[in-house]
Amino acid sequence: MSRPRLRDLGMSIGLLPTGPDNAITDVPGVWVGHATVVRDDPMVARTGVTMIVPRENEIWADFAFCGVHSFNGNGEMTGTAWIEESGMLGSAIGITNTYQVGMVRDALVRHSVDEGHRGAFFLPVVAETWDGVLNDIRSFPLTAADAFGALAAAAPGPVAEGNVGGGTGMICHEFKGGIGTSSRRVSIEGSDYMVGALVQANYGERSDLRVDGAAVGRRIGVDVVPSPWTEFDEAGSIIVIVATDAPLLPVQCRRLARRATVGLARVGGVGHNGSGDLFLAFATGNRLPKDRPMRELRMLDHDHIDPLFDATADAVEESILNALCVAETMTGYQGATAYELPTEGLLDMVEGRATTLPGPVD
Asked: Of 13, 211, 277, 360, which one is least surrounded by beta carbons within 10 A?
């Protein structure tokens, strides 16, 4: 039985309304697909690939303005040099494990060539977090077929969360983490816009975890839910992708990407030295078909952008919490186990009616 999202537990973040699926796919034209690899032979694999595909897969020929932000840079996100230079995104966005970024990047280039996308950037964006506690990452279990599978699975509508795609083997605040998503709808001067976020959450100490402002992490001891960490483990990383259909220019996309830091901080992300906290925001409100010598652009005035900042912070915060709520206990490499965040009694703890959870994990 699938685990509940945050709102299924009676909690929500902020005051802005969500889109119909409360997911990044509420931004028109944004698709998400996963390829998940879970097996024990010939090696222990708990990993995968997640693909975010803008413009209903027309991103290869109709680019989007884009911006990136590194909160802490001990991680990898390919293609960012050209994003910084041009302010444009021209491919799907892949998220996977640390050791297989290059393979997924090459698969996206091959896809672009095979599909005949002439003039595409060939500098696709692929980001990573490290899943080596649960996944035998040194065995390189993913193949190009997995990357192609995630692309083929990309679709609009509800997005699978938790132990799926690139988030399959991830750990967050010492609980099972992974993929999470959320969205917000804003109205600015009579026009409605959607902001969506998707995270691959693999970071954080338990003592820092907050749920809607309540310091629940420090109230869940290892006697109730054991930690998967050993003395050699270190707080890991988070990848955040923000999408909007607002008409933003690259400098405004960078500003939006920076606001992901607010949502991360609310949940308890600090940006430790060993953490790769890399954020990307893209905006589809302008059309950028390739090979056009001149384009007419629209731009939301800076003085009216604050609602998008609020929406980004809220959507990122709820995305992380959705990842934690939906992810299920997983045992993997060398018997390591990451336990799910207990959700029974969580609302009472957040609202101050309880200081402990019902009992220890089985």
From this structure: 360
Whether the predicted model's global pTM rises above the 0.85 cut: yes
DSSP 214: B
Which stretches does DSSP call E strand in 132-172?
Answer: 171-172
**Residue 139 appears among annotated catalytic residues:** no
* Residue from 183, 227, 275, 319 carrying the catalytic annotation: 275
Contact (CB, 8 A) for 341 and 176: yes
Cβ atoms of 50 and 167 within 8 Å: the answer is yes
Distance in angstroms (rounded) separating the CA atoms of residues 171 and 137: 14
Per-residue pLDDT band at 292 (split at 50, 70, 90): confident
In a 10 Å sphere around its CB, with 0-12 CB exposed, 13-18 middle and 19+ buried, how is residue 62 labelled?
Answer: middle
Written as six digits, the tokens of 341 are 């965040």
Query: Which residue type occupies 182?
Result: S
| Alpha-carbon gap, residue 166 to 127, rounded angstroms | 10
Question: In the 8-state DSSP scheme, what is residue 181?
Answer: E
Domain annotation for the chain: domains and CATH numbers: 7-347 (3.60.70.12)
Per-residue pLDDT tens digits for 4-27? 999 999 999 999 999 999 999 999
Q: Which of 237, 310, 314, 319 is catalytic?
A: 237
CA distance 79 to 72: 17
3-state helix, strand, coil in the chain (%, to 5): 30, 30, 45
> Is 91 annotated as catalytic?
no
Q: How far is CA 246 from CA 28, 151, 240, 305, in A?
A: 11, 25, 18, 10
Pairing of strands 125-129, 93-97: parallel
